[in-house]
Amino acid sequence: MNSRITDPLLLSRVMSAADAVQHIQPGDNVGMSGFTGAGYPKEVPTALGQRVVAAHQRGEEFQIGLWTGASTAPDADGVLAEARAISSRMPYNSDPTLRALINAGEVDYVDAHLSHSAPHMWFGFYGRLNVAVVEVTAVLPGGMLVPSSSVGNNKTWLDQADKVILEVNHWQPREFEGFHDVYYKTALPPHRVPIPLDDPTDRIGEPYLRVDPAKVVAVVETRAPDRNSDFTAPDAVSEAIAGHVLDFLRHEVAAGRMPPELLPIQSGVGNVANAVLAGLGSSEFTDLVAFTEVIQDGMLDLLDSGTLRFASATSFGLSSAGVKRFMDGIDGYKGRILLRSEEISNHPELVRRLGVIAMNGMIEADIYGHVNSTHVMGSAVMNGIGGSGDFARNAYLNFFVSPSTAKNGAISSIVPMASHVDHTEHDVHVLVTERGLADLRGLSPHDRARRVIASCAHPSYADRLTDYLDRAIAARPTARHTPHLLGEALSWHQRYLDTGRM
Predict the structure, then answer these.
(1) Edge-to-edge strands of the sheet including 337-340?
(2) 252 an active-site residue?
(3) How far is CA 114 from CA 76, 91, 388, in A?
(4) DSSP string, 375-405
(5) With pLDDT > 90 as the criterion, what percentage of the chain qualifies?
(6) Where is 304: in which H helix or E strand?
(7) Chain CA centroid to CA 197, Å
(8) pTM score, whole prediction
(9) b/e per residue 44-58 (b: at least 16 CB within 10 A)
(10) Of the residues 135, 293, 343, 425, which is catalytic?
(11) Is 466 exposed, middle or buried (CB count within 10 Å of its CB: 0-12, 13-18, 19+)?
């Protein structure tokens, strides 16, 4: 018998991806696995894209609503976008082809907090889930499933979908069994109960996903890798940002606001985040834990060195070298890495109660501390809010980080007014650029503005920001709480659109 599919009924439903996608119909909502390029289906999206292209060539309409845990990969989001197969998408996307369609108004994009995506699906806000397509590592008797390299929203998709297509990926290590903690006691109000997680290391669920075998209409076997994103080595800018963050953590420990081993850390994805993690690895901090979304190479480094003793997440986001290192040493990571559903990894109450330190990137911040993490020049979405709001709003301490300029200095990341606001001034604690760090806690808007300009703005823009603030204060003597010149507030963005420079 197939060593990856030991349920006789589901073994009898093995078929090609081309046959499997016959169960997906025009207008269906399809929930696919996948989170930051890990654990997404590898063959069904391509086969579905080919079916859609053929339908379009015959003059037939064929599009689906696509729901996932977060981003996927070119062979999932990408091939479906190229096929013009997607009518709507939620809750997060990073594929450039799909991004272009969203920004052209051809795909409706629901950019949702990741912690909201599963509950809002239960509430019926997105409509009925017709088909779930979920990658797993193995299928056990009775519909027990060994998850793969991400969990994301898979539990909800499997529970709620009318039909299920499973992809069993032989590339994923069979040793994944035991790396997951799937909690099955979430509920809708008024039946919710407290989630019994008191420490990031706690196991509160099961190592398996479950599916009703009667709903499984197809099983597709694959052997294909995840999308592995290689990171560049930290540059001087990201290292400077990391240095400011680490110095501030030392300051907080010295002030008695957190213990020497810090509090659970959450880190967004990218080179700056990995630079911060690298800085932690060479610092005096030890015995750390992570309560985060994605395990990156930097966290493997910390686990390998012993700086990090445990990491709770919902997905991996490793480079090719990181994947090899993880697979070569997988037995040593068992018991120190736990993957959960994103409704747990991003749960606001857990983030607040555990006292998470959140570190996330931004596109821009304004002088008062409002942060835009999703839109370029106010209108064109980049990727989405993802989990940054889940963590920032509820964190014990949050950082938003960015280089002070972009496009070789043509754009300032510190502006008079943010062109789009994802995180309000009330939710933002600390802004960091390579120029410095602005602790905004406990400050009035006027004091925040002075500190942001002095600490974070690039010298090429700082004087202009101060001039804007001074003139805004003078312009309306009865409106000086958060002064703005409304006719100028977004003029920097308009100047960039008109001339290519702010």
Answers:
(1) 180-181, 337-340, 308-313, 288-291, 265-267, 357-361, 397-401, 430-433, 436-439
(2) no
(3) 19, 7, 9
(4) EETTTEE-S--TTHHHHHHH-SEEEEE--SE
(5) 94
(6) helix 297-305
(7) 22
(8) 0.96
(9) bbbbbbbbbbebeee
(10) 293
(11) middle
